[in-house]
Specification:
Rossmann fold, four-stranded parallel β-sheet, five-stranded parallel β-sheet, 395 residues, alpha/beta
Length: 395
């Protein structure tokens, strides 16, 4: 075939594909809500490239997904679009309600836990599904859960259980727990205490740290003082800000591995994951965003994919139909991590494997071999049905 005839064939194929999408195609908008002045995206924070912190706004993940789902709505003559809103904290609730009033039925929330609660309360009873793509806080899946809030990002409990399984498998059962001053640090530490009890780990000592140059607080900011006088196989660092954790490597009294916020972390995504088609997704993202993909990016990507997949598999754009499908056992999501993904009915948390990774290598994928569950091994990670405090049916 000559070059000119090959080009003609390509033009005919393109014309045929375009003809499949009528001019009157329905546009299904997928919302993305952000907050102005968000501290997690300060330049100094993202520049530090801390292992568990975002490198940029996760909207880039949603943009990549939008390019992948162009034909998911062919059967229903549906195209997909993104509606990105970034507003001040005091306008989040009104903006979310306005988005719903304008016909947006699915909204990703790139927000801290407190703001997610605000938006969730403001939209209670409305025809909308909210996707939490950022906040790991367990209480959002527990006492603060809501039937229209679904969690794509792993919880603190899932992160801690992945690490707990790894420590138990390695036989590193004595752990020194270092806890930061923030409420988020204490929540992270609480999740690890639960995991330690679940997997037979012993927290030999627990100490708090501060980020301070004040010599009067040297006992709480000096790594050698904080890590002496304890017997431990590993150090779990509960530091959601990350500044203390990143400076702890090689400074502990005993030469022991770090886990938690530094060293080895439980992640939803890592750029070095090399199986199940992951390099192709990572390549598309890096080409688009000019940076590696992180957890929030992956969650934003999957939110778009979840909605588009629901449209494709139900051949419908009816909100009730799509919402039911997202919560059903018929949902099939491929997160490029090797397992079929779906949402837990008791708290709307996405079942998913966790990648146990350092800065440049995925060491293991949890659940690890030998950790079993009566129904689904993915439910060895995080809050199981019997221990859940979520009561969505009564809300």
């Amino acid at each position: 075939m000559t070059r000119s005839s090959f080009a003609a064939v390509l033009l005919m194929i393109a014309a045929t594909l375009l003809a499949c999408v009528p001019a009157s195609a329905e546009v299904l908008k997928i919302g993305h809500l952000e907050m102005k002045g968000d501290r997690d995206y300060r330049g100094s924070r993202t520049f530090a490239a801390l292992l568990t912190q975002p490198l940029g706004r996760p909207f880039a993940g949603a943009e990549v997904a939008l390019g992948e789902v162009k034909w998911h709505g062919a059967a229903t003559q549906t195209t997909f679009a993104l509606d990105r809103q970034r507003v001040a904290a005091d306008r989040l609730a009104d903006t979310a309600r306005s988005m719903v009033a304008a016909g947006t039925r699915f909204i990703s929330l790139d927000l801290p836990a407190a703001q997610i609660e605000t938006v969730t309360r403001a939209t209670a009873g409305l025809d909308v599904v909210l996707f939490n793509i950022r906040a790991a806080d367990d209480h959002l899946r527990g006492t603060a859960c809501q039937p229209h809030l679904m969690h794509l990002i792993p919880s603190h409990a899932m992160q801690a259980d992945a690490i707990g399984q790894f420590l138990a498998r390695q036989g590193w059962r004595e752990v020194l727990l270092l806890v930061g001053p923030d409420d988020a640090d204490r929540a992270m530490a609480s999740a690890f205490r639960r995991s330690a009890a679940r997997y037979g780990l012993d927290i030999d000592a627990e100490r708090t740290f501060l980020l301070s140059n004040d010599p009067r607080q040297r006992d709480e900011n000096n790594p050698r003082l904080l890590t002496q006088g304890a017997d431990y196989d590993a150090v779990f660092v509960a530091d959601t800000d990350g500044e203390f954790a990143r400076n702890l490597n090689y400074l502990t009294v005993d030469p022991r591995p770090l886990v938690g916020a530094e060293g080895l972390a439980g992640l939803a995504w890592h750029w070095s994951w090399a199986r199940h088609g992951a390099p192709q997704l990572e390549g598309r993202f890096q080409k688009h965003a000019d940076r590696p993909m992180r957890d929030g990016d992956w969650a934003a990507w999957l939110a778009v994919k979840a909605v588009a997949s629901a449209v494709q598999r139900t051949a419908s754009t009816d909100f009730a139909t799509l919402k039911t499908h997202l919560s059903s056992a018929e949902l099939i999501l491929d997160g490029f991590k090797g397992n079929r993904l779906g949402f837990r009915p008791w708290n709307n948390q996405l079942r998913q494997p966790m990648l146990l990774a350092t800065h440049n290598h995925v060491v293991a994928r949890a659940p690890l071999e030998g950790f079993l569950h009566r129904d689904n091994t993915l439910d060895t990670l995080g809050i199981d049905a019997a221990e859940s405090t979520c009561r969505m049916a009564t809300r």
